[in-house]
Amino acid sequence: MAFYLLFILLILGVISFLFFSTARQHLEQEVGRKLQYIAKISAKHTPFDRLELIQIGDDQSRMVLRLKEKLAEVQEATGVENIYLFRPDGSTLLDLRSAVRIGQPYPLAHFAPAFLQKLAAQKSVNTQGYADAQEDIFISAYAPIQDLEGRLFAIVGVDSGDGELALIERMRLILYWIAFAGMAFAALLALFFARGITSPIRRIAYTAEQLGSGNYSARAEVETSDELRVLADAINRMAEQVRNRDAALKEMAASVAHEIRNPLNSIKLLVSLLDDDLSAHHTDMTRSTIETLRYEIGKLNRFIEEFLTYARPIALIGDQVTAASLISSVLDMVAAPANEKNIKLDVHISDETIHLTVDRLRLEQTLLNLVLNAVQASQEGGEVAVHTRFAASKDGLDFIVDDSGAGIAPDMLTQIFEPFYTTRIDGTGLGLANAKRIAEAHNGALYAENRPEGGARFVLHLPLQNA
Predict the structure, then answer these.
(1) pTM metric for this prediction
(2) Same domain, 239 and 374
(3) Are residues 364 and 406 in the same domain?
(4) CA–CA distances in Å: residue 106 to residues 48, 61, 92, 94, 172
């Protein structure tokens, strides 16, 4: 928009400048011709034979007053500012202003030396527009008065009046309004053109965000036929390719997990049978070996379950639950591992009556993962706090899980939700990734931070429109 606005304003400024300059030049020429005509008429009313008799000190003589009367009639009829006569050397000969005395030198700052040559050749001249000390604009014209031998004896000067000045000022004011209207039009035009570009870009960006969040059915709808349409078509083709590839990978992952789970279940069954057969002849070594086998089989089963949860699309079931019931179910499941480490579970519910429409099993899975992680991260004899609070904007409910562990390294805060990232030997790296996916599937969010007093905090935010 800024580019279009600057471009249009530049064009408008150049056109306005050229238009104003040309219009002012033509207007000054017309006013100058009019003033030259008035100067010639004034010269006819002041014949040489009378001017020749004027001496210094004759300001109140009858002849001078009579000449001033004739010039005043011309001034009144034409509306000019002033009519005056001066000699080629610049001394005053006659002036309608009573303060200007005969013989007084004139401050003719705008009387160019070249004017004398034209006036001597019996040609009238005029100045261009100029400003006086009060910033008022004037135009002056001059006509010659010759002696009997054809030499330049005196010069009649005429200064423009209020009419001409008002016309120039009105023209300037009109051009200012035209420039202002042009700027407003340019801004609207720039906004229109900018929106024609930014709107498709925003739609393409939104589609890219949807694809990044896993919504592979999103498509960029662009009605233009320019480069943006080419970009949108490329994004849409990429989305289709990514969706097909993602579907193929998920199908392959589910197939591989199924092929692993079947023999794994058989191995688990065989280990149980072997344990029964050897129950009468157990030694410490065989008992330890069988327990290790069961532990590893359980770990593999847990990994396959979390892997399938991550690979499958999330289809939510809407259950009406309260925050208190969700937390109560989770605490029942973590009571045993918490007791083993002598960890105190502290619970605080901000509002036990509020209901949420969520997938209960998936939310319990998410909260269970967070609380179990907090128990495992806390030192023996520590404390895990689980509480709720309303979001700052009052449009959501936060489930908060605090532990009393060592906290999370700053460089890990942005990585702990990535798939297969874990710092535990027996971790799968999919628990927090699945928890984040479930939170986002509920239009919520999950994030982690370090507490100032020590330990880590996980916040699960759910919008209240699910209520």
Answers:
(1) 0.46
(2) no
(3) yes
(4) 20, 21, 6, 11, 31
